[in-house]
Design goal:
This protein is mainly beta. Helices cover 9% and strands 35% of the residues. The protein starts with a helix and ends with a strand. It is found in: Cell membrane. InterPro entries: BIM1-like, BIM1-like_dom.
């Protein structure tokens, strides 16, 4: 009986966990639970029960920024984040990974906070052979809770080679909150023996996935309601301790 009660309690926490994409523009608000989606829309692969939108964001053909808020509802004190891309008007296959990383939030209750990566590279074999400027695609964010549940959200994009069409990435839409720790950031193409789990890994090939956006301390804004949601810090500060060993695997804070 105790096992059953514990399991039900865990499932309750999982069902309430959600993620919001704040950049590129979110496909739509799927933070709802209704008769069609009794456990919440975000459980539905590939994009949380929402069809593609006509409000697409221009995104650099070689890759761009992704910002997300992982702490909606309960159940995400810890989580794995996967960011993938699917090619086409309404992709059903999101088999091109851009990155994955582990987050540790301040609480298992709902918490404010944003994580942003200013530049995620589209794999070279994709943008050099499978896409061109003007092609459509979708960025998929998957948040895997500690109990194993996956939450799905998407942003719809148009690839472009014209920087003037891309919305500016700056301190208002790409920043990182002080109370969310990011670790074990993985980039596709890493050889199995080229990895490190902390910032004490090898110095060669050091790079900085989170570099490139300087954000002064300010009150963070909720992407859905516009309410105040905590404090943000410069991306450069969050990136301290995130290093690449062998060029592709980044250790943790």
């Amino acid at each position: 009986m105790l096992f059953i009660l514990t399991t039900l309690l865990q499932l309750t926490h999982v069902a309430q966990a959600h993620v919001v994409i704040s950049y590129p523009a979110w496909r739509g608000n799927n933070l709802v639970t209704n008769e069609t989606f009794p456990f919440g829309m975000q459980w539905m692969y590939p994009c949380g029960g929402i069809s593609p939108t006509t409000n697409r964001t221009y995104w650099p053909i070689s890759g761009g920024a992704v910002a997300l808020q992982p702490g909606w509802f309960t159940g995400h004190e810890t989580a794995l984040i996967y960011i993938n891309i699917g090619i086409g008007e309404n992709p059903v296959n999101y088999s091109f990974p851009l990155t994955q990383f582990y987050i540790n939030g301040p609480s298992n209750n709902p918490y404010p906070g944003t994580v942003c990566i200013p530049k995620l590279d589209v794999p070279g074999t994709v943008w050099s052979t499978q896409i061109k400027s003007g092609d459509r695609a979708s960025v998929q964010v998957v948040e895997a809770a500690r109990h194993g549940a996956g939450q799905f959200s998407c942003s719809d994009i148009i690839f472009t080679d014209d920087p003037a069409l891309v919305p500016e990435v700056n301190a208002t839409n790409c920043f990182n909150s002080t109370d969310i720790k990011v670790s074990n950031v993985y980039l596709p193409g890493t050889p199995p023996n080229e990895s490190c789990s902390t910032s004490t890994g090898r110095e060669s090939g050091r790079t900085n996935l989170f570099a490139g956006v300087d954000s002064p301390a300010a009150t963070e804004t909720n992407a859905v309601t516009g309410d105040g949601k905590g404090v943000r810090v410069p991306v450069m500060l969050l990136s301290l301790g995130l290093v690449v060993a062998g060029g592709r695997y980044i250790g943790g804070l």
